[in-house]
Amino acid sequence: MDPRDRAATLIEALPYIQRFAGKTVVIKYGGAAQVEKPLQSPFAQDVVLLKYVGINVVVVHGGGPQIGDLLKRIGKATEFIEGLRVTDEETVGVVEMVLSGSTNKGIVRLINRHGGAAVGLSGSDAGLTQARKLTLSRKNAEGTDEVIDLGHVGEVTKVQPDIIHHLTRGHYIPVIAPLGVDDAGNVYNINADSAAGAIAGALCAEKFILLTDVPGLLDKAGKLISTLRSSDVQRLREEGIIRGGMIPKVEACLDALASGVTKTHIVDGRVPHAVLLEVFTDQGVGTQIVR
Q1: Exposed, middle or buried by CB within 10 Å (0-12, 13-18, 19+), for 122?
Q2: How confident is the model at residue 84 (pLDDT cuts 50, 70, 90)?
Q3: Of 180, 185, 199, 268, which is least packed with CB atoms within 10 Å of its CB?
Q4: Residue ranges of domains in the chain, CATH in brackets
Q5: What angle do CA 65, 246, 88 make, to 5 degrees?
Q6: Distance in angstroms (rounded) separating the CA atoms of residues 101 and 63
Q7: What does the pLDDT look like over 110-141, one tens digit per residue?
Q8: Predicted structure pTM score
Q9: Is 53 within 8 Å of 16 (Cβ atoms)?
Q10: What is the C-alpha separation between 150 and 136, in angstroms, rounded?
């Protein structure tokens, strides 16, 4: 690259560094960016760079494939209902072990290896993520509502972010597993997109970035929708543009916006350094969802 091009790239980033210094960015880390080795180091470098230029970075990660692999190895069948893993007493132990253990600590080591100071947490640490059992109902063959028991699958009721503030003020990078507990001490497996959105809202983050395995939200012609206003979401759902696995991601963004997050972004994590491209370039990547 021509040295002048390198200088132009740095100058393009300058106003964003100035704007976001001291602000909070919450990143939901998952998909290919989390499991494919060539993408892991670029992600960690992005996180460390953000921290070094004065941005408070908070990472919330998934772990579905890793949970599935361990359940398969121990001979435990996995059942999904409407995209949610049925989590019985035995399964929730595996979920907690994988999310709070091997997966969380692997991400912590990855970031630290690239010069960061990451600290692993789960939603049960310091009462970070309070939750309740998620209730799901659907129509049965007779046309009446049937309540489905998903076991230890939960939804966030409250986030107490004091531990996050304590860590970010100390120049640490919190890495959070999406688990929650209720008042009785029961542990719940929480959808990582939803958990990340709730945490971003509790922190009134400047940005909430969801890393996915798609370029962003696409219209009927397959063209990227670069900006989406929250008022247009219902129409796009009715048109079938927002569907399937994109629904919980968009809902997490809407919840975050309603809680005070300035901007939310659905970004293709398969692109190396997607986080830096979204935060520090004029064009950005993916779809931004705004109020």
Answers
A1: buried
A2: confident
A3: 185
A4: 21-290 (3.40.1160.10)
A5: 45
A6: 11
A7: 999 999 999 999 988 999 999 999 987 776 76
A8: 0.93
A9: no
A10: 8
